[in-house]
């Protein structure tokens, strides 16, 4: 049985920073499940179905990547998918403290599941879905920050 990693996030929307981690993770793991979780602290621009569609389109050329949704605890979801690992991207030192807390809690809940951190490519170290949405809201060109399908979806959201 191969190694499976869960790459969780709210992906509102998926960016080239997310895609960088997913693509690199797909080289390390036999299977990567991109799992959309609803972050209660955020009010999303895209609904779950829109997110799934955008992620599927952005990852369609990665045969060992699948896309799914979960509403429960990440470690429970990972167990249900027989995943060995949680794949997370780190942009900057500021991400580390938050990620360390989450990883420690996940480890307490299920010590069988490891967390694998990848540093985001430097060209995406500033990038977040929030920054992309803010720029797109004011009609800025975000085509070098998100896949074409996402840039188009953002235009539709903000120009309707």
From TrEMBL:
Keywords linked to the UniProt accession: ATP-binding, Coenzyme A biosynthesis, Cytoplasm, Magnesium, Nucleotide-binding, Nucleotidyltransferase, Transferase
Organism superkingdom: Bacteria
Molecular function (Gene Ontology), one example: ATP binding
Catalysed reactions, as listed in the record: (R)-4'-phosphopantetheine + ATP + H(+) = 3'-dephospho-CoA + diphosphate
Organism: Halalkalibacillus sediminis
Residue intervals of the Cytidyltransferase-like domain: 6-134
Full protein name: Phosphopantetheine adenylyltransferase
Homology family: Belongs to the bacterial CoaD family.
Signal sequence interval, chain numbering: none
Predominant localisation class: cytoplasm
Transition state stabilizer (site feature) positions: 18
Subcellular location, record wording: Cytoplasm
EC number of this enzyme: 2.7.7.3
Listed SUPFAM superfamilies: Nucleotidylyl transferase
Gene symbol of the encoding locus: coaD
Binding residues annotated for ATP, in chain numbering: 10-11, 18, 89-91, 99, 124-130
Presence of keyword ATP-binding: yes
Pathway given in the UniProt record: Cofactor biosynthesis; coenzyme A biosynthesis; CoA from (R)-pantothenate: step 4/5
């Amino acid at each position: 049985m191969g190694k499976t990693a869960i790459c969780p996030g709210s992906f509102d929307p998926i960016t080239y920073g997310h895609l960088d981690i997913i693509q690199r993770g797909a080289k390390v793991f036999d299977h990567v499940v991109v799992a959309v979780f609803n972050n209660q602290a955020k009010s999303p621009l895209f609904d779950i179905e829109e997110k799934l569609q955008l992620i599927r389109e952005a990852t369609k050329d990665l045969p060992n990547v699948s896309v799914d949704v979960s509403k429960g605890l990440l470690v429970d979801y990972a167990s249900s998918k027989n995943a060995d690992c949680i794949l997370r991207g780190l942009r900057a030192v500021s991400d580390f403290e938050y990620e360390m807390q989450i990883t420690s809690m996940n480890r307490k809940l299920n010590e069988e599941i490891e967390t694998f951190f990848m540093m985001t490519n430097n060209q995406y170290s500033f990038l977040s879905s929030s920054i992309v949405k803010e720029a797109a809201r004011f009609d800025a060109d975000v085509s070098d920050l998100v896949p074409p399908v996402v840039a188009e979806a953002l235009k539709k959201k903000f120009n309707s």
